[in-house]
Fold this sequence. Notes:
This protein has ten helices and 14 strands. By secondary structure, the protein is an alpha+beta fold. The longest helix is centred in the middle third of the chain and has 51 residues, at 249-299. Helix 6 (249-299) runs antiparallel to helix 7.
Amino acid sequence: MKQTDKKKPRVGVKWKLFGYLAAFSAIILTTLWICQVLFLDDIYKLIKTAEIRRAAVKLTESVGSDGFESDAADIAGKNNVCVRVFLMIDRNNAREILSLDTQPNCMSHNMSRIGVFTLFDAAENNSGKVLRRYRYDESTRIYYSVGESSSGNEDPSDEESIIYALITKTSDGAELFIILNSVISPVGATVRTLNALLCIISGILIAAAFVFAFVMSKHISKPIADINAAAKQLAAGEYDADFSVKGYKEIAELSETLRYAASELSKVENMRRELIANISHDLRTPLTLINGYGEVMRDIPGENTPENMQVILDETARLTSLVNDVLDISKLQSGVQQIHPAEVRVTQTVKDAIERYNKLVEHKGYIITFSYDREAVTLTDETRFLQAFYNLLNNAVTYTGDDKTVRVRQEIVDTDGTNQIRISVSDSGEGIAPDKLPLIWDRYYKIDANHKRAAVGSGLGLSIVRTVMDMLGGAYGVESTVGIGSTFWISLPIKSEESGADSP
């Protein structure tokens, strides 16, 4: 049985951001609850233990100084610890030299002499320091180590005492035994108070987090949603879609990019429509003439004349040129055409091309002249070069004046320190206005009504010239004067040259 794949529903960026922010808030609150409910007591004990250790270190550093007693009192008061200091005469004899009682019922001050020496032995066996924790059992009225209750039941509500003892020596070698005692008060009541407060705070934070997450996600996602909507309009062919979206830097850059893309697509679409209109017109005219003259020659006796046949042949040539131009420009700009450079004798190649072209147009009265001062050779693709040159000839023949003369000249010019072979093709036509010169190389540029309509060709010739010269690494240009004519030229780097007479 064939199963169909079901696409998972996609979640919008707004709800994605909302979910992430809400999850982040939930993690923070959960962490607070865990730390307070489960680990508050342990954290409190760790802090008190760290405090008594730091107090012991400070007290040890002050041993032997003149202000030892005042320093000890200051340390005991700030850290809320009881302090007892013994001068150890021998293992069975000790004299207490300092006693600071900062808490009521301090365990260290209720400790018997035997307890002091027992603690001393434990410190001596543990690298000179020992830490013990005790609780007071009300039923037996004795202190017991935590975890070693005589009754077997430890009441967390009882106060816990931390005893930290260490052995040190004075500068004269006397051995001192220091006992510090800190009391850890039960935190049960405090925890219950904090839990109640945390419940209230959690409720407020959850509500605030959801509102903040919703507002923030909506604020971030709105520009993206607007761009998405405009992009859909662009995809549907609405090139005037509004991409003026305000937002963060990346969103603004994306908006600007899409606005530029919409503008360029709009231009391409307009040029495409213009091209279709031009091509349709160019195709319709010769087809109409061919069909009309063909029907006349078929239906009317005596109309099968050479003149009528020539009209059909001319219009067929026009159709062939049109189709070839369209195919050429498509292949050139799609990158299908390959360049095969070889050594080309440019002067002879141009001369031969003009001779062939003259035979095609001489019956219409056109004259093409060629002049040069020396033979020149270059490295290029001869087929592509001739393609560009023939299109310049076609353009000149189409727009030349009543004298029907086209002048071709080869010359060697210095361009940026490099010798170039320049082939110029001049006509005596109406010329081109200066503001139109940058547009004539455009593949979709429409010829002005002032210009004579091409007898043969599609109007794509100059675009083909531009594309071919770009492929060959050459240059192209035009000089034109209204009422006098135009000179189009192409150039390629020279490889070698030979002296020769200037030929007409």
